[in-house]
Amino acid sequence: MTAGGLAEYAVASTNLTTILPPTIPPDEAAGLPAAALTALQALRYAGVERGRPNQQPKNILITAASGGVGQFATQLAKLANLHVTATCGARNIDLVRSLGADEVLDYKTPEGASLTSPSEKKYDAVIHCATGISWSAFEPNLAEKGKVIDITPTMKVMMASLLQKLTFSKKQIVPLWLSPEGKDLSFIVGLVGEGKLRTVIDSRYPLEKAEEAWAKSMAGHATGKIIVEMR
Fold this sequence. Notes:
- By secondary structure, the chain is an alpha/beta fold.
- It is 34% helix and 19% strand.
- The strands form two sheets. The chain has a six-stranded parallel beta sheet with strand order 3-2-1-4-5-6. Strands 7-8 form a two-stranded parallel ribbon.
- Strand 4 (123-128), helix 6 (135-138) and strand 5 (142-150) form a beta-alpha-beta unit.
- Helix 2 (33-45) packs across helix 3.
């Protein structure tokens, strides 16, 4: 669950692994660990916890909802009975709706760029899976104590977060650093096994074309996960 390479075999601590049921295809399972765990932990940062339905956020925005992390965040948020507004490109609107989003914004339109909920809801939390969106775009759309969970925080984001804490700001941007745990992975795999969560796969590449897969990933426009297969 840490980046660094591609291999047929890898060594990992038992507390970072779980048993894969034979009913889950290997390619779908390969797309789970980092992306689904990031989505799960981002929702926890936002205040979404099992067994506390009355204390968690009600309305949530997920940016880049058709991407690797966004697809899981959308599904998990809907499983938590949240009202989900999502952004994506026009070609992925139907897909994101099928993942559970209540409202979908094309990020290239003025409405999408403003991040305004079509139902005029204020967001209790934002799972920010995109890049290039400033705090000034989020702030007017947040509820009184709204949070933006940034899954790819820059130094600027971390400094802004620190300043907001020091000034006791009610609205905050929160940097997320993934802390993988085997129990979370078991939870995710369980949801997949029950048919409540799925991996959207953009494309598959053989190992000898891993460089092409990496280039596509870095381009930032994949729909779901890019899988490298060992043959």
